[in-house]
Structures are given as C-alpha cells and as structure tokens.
C-alpha cells in the first residue's frame, strides 16, 4: 500500500511540474495569473510531500513522532491557501478586494493557531503511542482521532485507564489539553466495518456521558456560588 501511495505521489509531482511548465509557456495568462497558478501548484506539491513524510515516519520510533505531527499540521495549514491562490487568479481586478484580504488574514491567523497549538499535539500522540505499543498498534486516522488494534481484549480496560490517568496528570500543568473519550469493540471474525461501527457507537456514548457529567458538575458549581 505504501509503495502504491508513493507511485501516486510521484505522478502527482510530475503532473504539477508539467502544469507549471505549461503555465510558463502560456500566452493567454498575464503575470498575475501565472504567479497565482505557480503558487497554487507549489502548495499542492508541498502538501503531497508532507503526506509522504507522514507515511514514512508512521512506523518509525516514537522519537520521530514530532515529524509526523508537524507534517499533518503543515498539511492542514496549507490546504486553504490553495483556494486563496485560485481566487487570486480569477480576480480580474488589479486591486485585491477587501474580502480577499480578509481571507488572507484568516489564513495567517489559522497558521499561527496551528503553530501555537503544535507543542501540545505530541503530548497525547506520544503518550498514547508509547502506552498502546506494548499491547498492540496505535494509528492516527484523523486530526484528533486514533484507532488502536489490541492483541487481546483484556488489555483494553487497563490501557484505557492508564491513558486517562496520564492525561489527567499532564492536564495539571497543560490546562489546554482536551478531555478524551474512548470506545471499543471486540473482533470475533466478523466484518471489520461492523466492528468499527460498534466502536464508533461506544465512542459517541462515552462522549455524551462525558458532556452530561461536565454539564452536571458545572450546574453544581453554579448552585454553590449562588
């Protein structure tokens, strides 16, 4: 699967390079439009390379985990900039409109936000990976979603309790850390999608219980203050 992904990325980079070459030869595009297309192609190429880095370091030792997280953060941050480049190309006015300037400012704030929150990303990722690596395999499947494949069902409750305990301890010094909800399902030979659906339902039940408990605690604190 990794080799297949690398081949697709190589083709992607070749096509982007060819598009840059055609853009340079075009006589129907002005300098502003060429500049916008070039920047959009370069950003797409950078995002593709960042995805490759994420794949390469996914199975690397925990010491390389920061590189995986940094690549994901940069990929998320650069994606909106591609759309801004295309808007810049399509804008026929010589003066950039106020809305476009606002969008550029939002993109800058977005990148600053990712940079500010980057130090806290590895806290959960490396805690989770080191903990579950002893009993199974831990994979990041989304921005803040992880999937863990355990070798035996008995390890699930122990690992979950240890993870929550570690996070609670870290949260004393890093108050920005969010709460974590966990959901699990045992695999007994049935369809993998069905197992995932059961785990998702358990996860959302845990989230709802966590929200209800937080709301009850907030209500109790409000009654005490009054």
Compute the number of helices.
7
Q: What is the approximate shape?
A: extended
Main structural class: mainly alpha
Number of domains: 2
Order of helices and strands: HHHHHEEHH
Terminal CA distance reads 60 Å
Flag low-confidence runs.
Answer: none
- Approximate strand percentage: under 5%
What's the number of extended β-strand segments? Answer: 2
Helix content: over 70%
- Average pLDDT figure: 77
The largest β sheet comes out as: 2 strands, antiparallel
Could you characterize what this model shows?
With 226 residues, this protein is mostly helical. The chain has 2 domains: 2-118; 122-214, no CATH class. It is 71% helix and 4% strand. It has 7 helices and 2 strands; from the N terminus they run αααααββαα. It has a two-stranded antiparallel ribbon with strand order 1-2. A hairpin with a 5-residue loop joins strand 1 and strand 2 (146-150). Helix 1 (2-25) packs antiparallel against helix 2 (31-56). The radius of gyration is 23 Å and the shape is extended.
């Amino acid at each position: 699967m990794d080799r297949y992904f690398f081949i697709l990325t190589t083709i992607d980079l070749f096509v982007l390079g060819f598009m840059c070459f055609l853009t340079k030869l075009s006589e129907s595009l002005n300098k502003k439009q060429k500049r916008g297309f070039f920047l959009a192609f370069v950003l797409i190429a950078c995002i593709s390379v960042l995805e490759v880095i994420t794949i390469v370091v996914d199975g690397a030792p925990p010491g390389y985990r920061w590189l995986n997280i940094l690549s994901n953060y940069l990929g998320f941050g650069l994606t909106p900039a591609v759309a801004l480049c295309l808007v810049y190309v399509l804008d026929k006015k010589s003066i950039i409109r106020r809305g476009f300037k606002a969008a550029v400012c939002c993109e800058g704030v977005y990148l600053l936000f990712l940079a500010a929150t980057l130090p806290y990303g590895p806290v959960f990722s490396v805690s989770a990976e080191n903990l579950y690596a002893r009993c199974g395999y831990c994979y990041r499947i989304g921005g803040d979603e992880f999937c863990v494949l355990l070798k035996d069902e008995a390890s699930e409750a122990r690992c979950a309790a240890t993870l929550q305990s570690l996070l609670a301890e870290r949260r004393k010094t890093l108050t920005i850390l969010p709460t974590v909800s966990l959901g699990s399902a045992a695999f007994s030979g049935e369809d993998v999608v069905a197992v995932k659906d059961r785990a998702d339902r358990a996860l959302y039940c845990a989230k709802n219980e966590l929200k209800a408990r937080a709301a009850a605690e907030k209500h109790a604190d409000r009654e005490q203050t009054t």
